[in-house]
Amino acid sequence: MAAQLLVKLENVNKFYPKLTSSRERLQALWAVLRGKGEYARHPVLQNISLEVYQGETLGIIGENGAGKSTLLKHIAGVVKPSSGKVRVTGRIGALLELGAGFHPEYTGRENLQLSGALMGMGDAELQDKLAGIIEFADIGAYIDEPIKHYSSGMVVRLGFALITASRPDLLITDEVLAVGDESFQKKCTHWMEDYLGNGGTLLLCSHSMFHVQKLCQKACWIKEGRMVSYGEAFQVTQEYLAYHEEKSRQEVRPQTALSAAAYQVKDLWLQGEKEGGLAVIPMGEELKVRGEVYSPDDRTPTVAVGIMRINGAEIYGFTSDVDGVVLKRQQPTRFRFALTFPRLALLPGRYKLCAHAMDPEGMRLFDVVEREFQVVGRTRELGVCHLAHEWQENLP
Ligand SMILES: Nc1ncnc2c1ncn2[C@@H]1O[C@H](COP(=O)(O)OP(=O)(O)OP(=O)(O)O)[C@@H](O)[C@H]1O
């Protein structure tokens, strides 16, 4: 059966008034009200056309102010286009702005009852689900406090917990998830993986390429209101990252005497790598990586080692300044690095191991060395990633 078309945008344009001071706003408002003029407008979305089918996952990426949230608001029906068409079918669960849809004076519990009713849940259904929602939100006694006393993380917890109960056909989330703490983000990510594994549809707006690559099959890049790239998530996020790399390279070039290849990964080895051949790693095994990096000014560089699935969305990464990668000085300007990736949830397939050399502050990416390898093994039908040791237990 063909997947259902849930979202269709045709040549959507959105203009917002370009007003800075409150005086300008008032003047413009008076002019419009008296029918004597128009205020200056600037395009926020330009000719956006897009289709999303049931079961698809689309990440929306772009710089601050690019128009991502405005795009999501159109799909959620919160904002109307200046021109063009927006058609959306199915039940929507939207997490857009912090606290949107909640009443600040009411308690969390009262807000859940109110929002649940607005989402079409009857009394019995709501009573049935309330305990589960409160458990997911995990905000303790705050559930009976007015929302205005909540931290931003607590508001997001409540909003997301409500969405888990409504099982929407289309889940729309803006950057708000980044507000939650790490354990809550993990919980949400697991829930989303489960939701997607069961045919859910996701539109995610994020500055985290990690999340977009992990959760989305497709991505679209919005730049100054226009869609500049649309396609496979890995491809589009790589284009976006390359654009930023180039941009920051141009920005820093005049301020520094260092050449672009100043810090260099000189070598990279993968355990199991054969001379000239492809390393083959059995699924669920630890992966040992070693390498050498050169520092032009004998300061200790930062090294990042990552794994990416070729033509896929999985990505893992560790850096020497934060976690995982051990870096030892061998000579004044030469360092050895080593990393053991824990038993990774890598599905059989071809992967790319990448080692990046960065400046000591980890701000500038200089050099990338790559090695391909293959993970082999047997899996059952796995829609969603599970931890490797779980797979091992399940293997015949
Ligand atoms: N209600 C509004 N009135 C006027 N201008 C607006 C309004 N909402 C958004 N804008 C403008 O539209 C542009 C796009 O904003 P939007 O919030 O969609 O960007 P974004 O890509 O989500 O950015 P960020 O990553 O910073 O969240 C910005 O220039 C913003 O100032």
Automatic annotation (TrEMBL):
Keywords: ATP-binding, Hydrolase, Nucleotide-binding, Transport
Segments forming domain ABC transporter: 7-249
GO molecular function: ABC-type transporter activity; ATP binding; ATP hydrolysis activity
InterPro entries in alphabetical order: AAA+_ATPase, ABC_transporter-like_ATP-bd, ABC_transpr_TagH-like, Bact_Polysacc_Export_ATP-bd, P-loop_NTPase, Wzt_C
Alphabetical list of Pfam families matching this protein: ABC_tran (PF00005)
GO cellular component, one term: membrane
EC number, UniProt record: 3.6.3.40
Family per similarity comment: Belongs to the ABC transporter superfamily.
Entry protein name: ABC transporter, ATPase subunit
Organism per entry: Nitrosococcus oceani (strain ATCC 19707 / BCRC 17464 / JCM 30415 / NCIMB 11848 / C-107)
